[in-house]
Each structure stands twice: as structure tokens, then as C-alpha cells.
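Lab notebook, bench 4. The sequencing result for the construct came back, and we need a structural model before the next group meeting so we can plan mutations. Quick request posted to the team channel:

Model the 3D structure of this chain.
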Amino acid sequence: MGKIIFSVRYEIKPEKRNEYLETIHELKNIVFAEGLESYSVFEDKSKNGFFEEIYIFDNADSYEKFDDAENERVEILVNKLSSYIKENSTKYLTLSEV
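Done. Here's the predicted structure in C-alpha cell form:
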């Protein structure tokens, strides 16, 4: 089985930028799961306020188990992040290594 890349792309509300950055930095420090190779967040330099979270998993099993892992602090931060995102701007992509 190959690696899995899961990405979430969205636009944040301009007035929530500082709160978003604080929350995402905290989240980056605590996101961990078995089989999660890396978690990164990037901003689109050509479109201010557009971000993409990229998760790289060792394999499909690790990817499938990721949502099952319970971490109360991660859940709280993800809910906060959701409140900063503009409606209907979220796009998901899952890629499988060949």
C-alpha cells in the first residue's frame, strides 16, 4: 500500500486572520497520529486568506484510522478553525500513491 495525501483547502474570513493563525499554530504542535508522517499548513501567496492543510499518511489504514483517534484538544481547535472559514469555500482532496 502506498502513501495517502489528504488536503483541505479553504478561505478564511479576513477579520479572523490573527485568531486563525494562533489556532493553526497550536494545532500544528499537537496533531499526531500513528502513521501520520506530516501535517503542514500553507497559504496561497497569490490569494490572500486562502490556506491548505496537507496530511501525509504512511498508508490507507493510517488514513482511515485518523478520524477515529480521539483527542479532545484537537477537536476543540478544529471547531474553532471551522468558525474562521468562509462558508462554501472548503474543498477536500485525497490522493493515493501509485
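The mean pLDDT is 92.
Will bring this to the meeting.
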